[in-house]
Known about the structure:
By secondary structure, this protein is an alpha+beta fold. The protein is built from 2 helices and 4 strands, in the order βαββαβ. The longest helix has 17 residues, at 60-76. It is globular, with a radius of gyration of 15 Å.
Amino acid sequence: MSIVKINVLTVPAEQREVLEQRFASRAGSVEGSDGFEWFELLRPLEGTDQYLVYTRWRSEEDFQNWMNGSMKAAHQGTAGGEGGERPKLAASGSTLWSFEVVQQASPK
């Protein structure tokens, strides 16, 4: 079965739009990765300032390969900041949760 990685991002209200735009602009960057199965960016509706970045992978090895490859390279770039500066972070904190899928269901 697959593994799930959920990155919990603490995002101040004034940075929500920035975060969502950054994820929209990276659309397609993970989808071609070997072992990638699913992505969702989940916006909080009430009571929290934490976004959830949900990804599902065929294996832990596939996730680690992505983390040490294209994801690492993308986060080390300057992202077009003026004078080579990196843009201000939209999230003020990040925690990674890991799960193994032991049961699943889909619509019939």
